[in-house]
Amino acid sequence: MTTINFEPLFDYTSLALILAPLTVMVLIGFYVRKRGSFLRLTALVALGLALTNPVVVDETREPLKSTVAVIIDRSQSQELGSRKQDTDEALKALTKRLEALPQFDVRVVQAGAPDEQNDGNETKLFSSLSNSLRDVPPSRIGGAILLSDGQVHDIPADLEALGFNAPVNALISGQPDEFDRRIAFNKAPRFGISGKPLQMSFTVIDQGEASAQNNIANVKIRINGEEVSEQQAHVGEETSLTLELPHKGTNIIELSTDVLDGEVTPVNNQAVAVVDAIRENLRVLLVSGEPHNGERTWRNLLKSDTAVDLVHFTILRPPEKQDGTPIEELSLIAFPTRELFVDKVNDFDLIIFDRYQHLDVLPLLYYDFIAQYVENGGALLVAAGPEYADYSSIARTPLYSVLPALPTGEVTEKAYYPRLTDAGKRHPVTRGLEGSDQEPPQWSRWFRTIDISTPQGEVVMSGADNKPLLVLSRVGEGRVGTLLSDQGWLWARGFEGGGPYAPLYRRIAHWLMQEPDLAEEALTAKGDARSLKITRQTMNDKTDKAVVTTPSGKEVELDLKETQPGLFETVMNTKEVGLYQIKNGDYETLAHVGPVDAPEFTDIISTTDKLSPLAQLSGGSVLRLHNQAQSAVTVPEITIAKAGQTFTSNNTITLRETADTQLKSINRLPLFSGFLSLAALLMIFASLWYREGR
């Protein structure tokens, strides 16, 4: 390439100051028709050329290659059918053709597979395309070729959002006549109330060439892996669903419909909703036998919990007290014994007897009602004091049938540190209590223990002389706890630094009310974007391996490691989105990894519709690797467009060459410098001087 450049000896301002007056003089000479004007003009031009210094530049340039990005879709939907095999076969043929085009620099990028940057819930090919061309100037981008099933979730809205103006082509895997049935929730609340009806809705959707299939779908409903009902739904119509959440905490609701013959995949024939069940306000009845230092500790703790409706009575005046006070002067509230312990006893989630003694306030028959309440699933806590050991103990009433610990009649009065037993170190009520991992424990002492004989249930804390201090037991369908000291208030008051009374009391209460998180034997699992955490709670010192069944049906065995006494855990890194089933011995649980409505499994039929608008705008094309007439993979021809040329073909892949070049060498030839140019300039001026002299 040859060009003429000017490299003036002075700046343009100085040149103007030199040449402008001379130009004016020459023009005046022409105007008055003075002889010698042409010679003066020649001298002016020669001077101007000498000062502007024209240079002939001859450049040798080499064309640059255009960069073409080939993006390979490795998302989970590409694992269906023969899509992955077809994509690999097309990539091999396409690479061979591109190698025969030396004007293109090809970059092959694997995209869409789950990794640290991509959770696998969406197919994001254009973000990978943008990253692969980040270091390439837009003018050198020759185009892009996507090998995908067409289900792409980050398609730019226009060429400006794309970031370059070059053809975008796509080769679509999958068959053109695919069909699929899926089921999806329309209404799935995130929270519900345990034991109360929960309103939900869903729709069964047929996609693709499924018009000949049955318009009625059978839908099975499972809660936490157990089938609860089955109903029919019209395809394409919203169907209402009413369920009852069985327990507090996480509940996994699973809908599944029939698998159609020949459909793409059964993966999306099930839908999952994760609903956290909460209880309505817990109703707790606290009956204090007499005013004492620890009474307010229980009351303040229960009142501080907004989820607890507390009914509290303190027996200030037993019936046998006779001091002559007129009835009309008494301001005490009558104790509604029949209403509480007969009519509405089953309305309470927990009954606490706090230093209560039998003084004929309750008829003996009422204790039998309380025992039946426990056996039918109720919760009872006895916070015992010295009265538990004497003749008025409630252990001497019909309530004894459900009590785990009967008193011996002795009370040990001596200082001691409450300690966790071996069972207590594993039990979820007492495991990991702050300060329990040191000897002596980092909390204050207590000074009284009520002696019992042959406790039934788990002794999780010990008192003076290693005597039982806290006993937890199951009776029928209910639970009973006995705290054999009335000095927990010392921890609440900060005596000798206090102790963890709040978590201890709260855990006792919630264990009695059968909180799932506090079960001694439990298997739980929790999934996030890319991992599954499995937790096994047990009172044993070891546990079996966990067997995990992935959404695709593959089984994986995992070792569980003990992280705390009675607590075994493991974390499994996952690549599949969906419902996982976990087994450990006789225990089973479910967990969902990834979002329950991942776009990757919403629309799963291969399609050309999503990528076609952008491809047409860019001058590219979207073509199938299969068509109705051919079962083999067909890779179209490549059409090359020149830089700046707009060319679109519906049957070929279009790529564009760049006009950019690379400078290899340069030759410079000054036109008005050197001795020859100086001689010509002197000759012209001498001629001018000679002419003017005449």
TrEMBL record:
Keyword check for Metal-binding: no
Record keyword Membrane present: yes
Transmembrane spans: 12-31, 38-57, 671-690
Alphabetical keyword list: Membrane, Transmembrane, Transmembrane helix
Sections of the chain in a coiled coil: none
Lineage: superkingdom: Bacteria
InterPro entries linked: Class_I_gatase-like (IPR029062)
SUPFAM superfamilies associated with the record: Class I glutamine amidotransferase-like
PANTHER family, sorted: BLL2462 PROTEIN
Name of this protein: Membrane protein
Protein's organism: Paenochrobactrum glaciei
